[in-house]
Amino acid sequence: MPRMTRTESQTRNRELVLAAARELFLRDGYLATSLAAIADAAGFSTGVVYSNFNGKAELALLVVREIQTEQLAALRGIVERRRPVDETLAAVRKWGESAADSGWPRLEIELALDARSDPDFVSVEAKRQRSAVAQGAEMLRGVVPKVVADTLPLEAIADAAVNYAIGFAIRRLIDPKASLDHMETLLRGAFTS
C-alpha cells in the first residue's frame, strides 16, 4: 500500500477527529466533552487535534454545520416529495422528533451559551441561522400552493418555524414529553390554504 502524502494524512486525521467529536458531542454534549476525550476517541494526541483545529468551539461549529446540512437535506426531501398533506405532515413530525432527540439541539445550545461572548463566533452563527431561514423559505416556496406563496411572507414564516424549532428543542431537553402537535396544526394551515 502506498504511503499517504502529508496532505492526505492531514485530511484523514481531520476527518477522524471530526467524526470522534461528532459522536462525543451528540452523546455527551458540548460542555462535557473535552478535547482530550476527542483526541483519545480519534486515536490521536491532543497535539494532533490542535494542529488541525483552533479548539473545541471550532470543532463543534464544524460538526453543527455538517448536521444542519444533513438535517435540512432530509427535511427538503420530505417536503419536496409529492404526497398527501397528512403524509407530509406526519413525515415532518417524525423528522422533528428525531432531530430533537438526536443530541443536536443540546450541542447547539451549549455551544452558543459557551461561545456567545466571542464576536467572531456570534457573527458566524448569525449567518448560519439566517442561511437556515433562507433555505426554509425556499423549501416553502416550492411546496405551498401558489396563492399562499404569493400572499404570505414566506421568509417570516420560515423564520418563525426556525424559532419554533429552537424553542421546541429547548423544551424537549427539559421535558421529553414536549409535543409537536401545535407545529403540525400550523403547517396544516399553510399546506391547505
List the helices and strands and how they pair.
Layout: H1 6-28, H2 35-42, H3 46-52, H4 56-80, H5 85-101, H6 104-115, H7 119-143, H8 146-151, H9 154-174, H10 181-192
Top keywords for this entry?
Arc Repressor Mutant, subunit A, single chain, mainly alpha, Tetracycline Repressor, domain 2, 2 domains, 0% strand, 10 helices, 193 residues
What's the rounded overall pLDDT mean? 85
Radius of gyration: 19 Å
Return the structural class: mainly alpha
Number of strands: 0
Helix content: over 70%
Number of helices: 10
Alpha-carbon distance between the two ends = 61 Å
Task: Describe the overall structure.
This protein folds into two domains: 1-53, Homeodomain-like (Arc Repressor Mutant, subunit A, Orthogonal Bundle); 57-192, Tetracycline Repressor, domain 2, CATH 1.10.357. The protein is elongated, with a radius of gyration of 19 Å. The chain contains ten helices and no strands. The chain has 193 residues and is mainly alpha-helical.
Concise account of the structure shown:
The protein has 193 residues and is mainly alpha-helical. The chain has 10 helices and no strands.
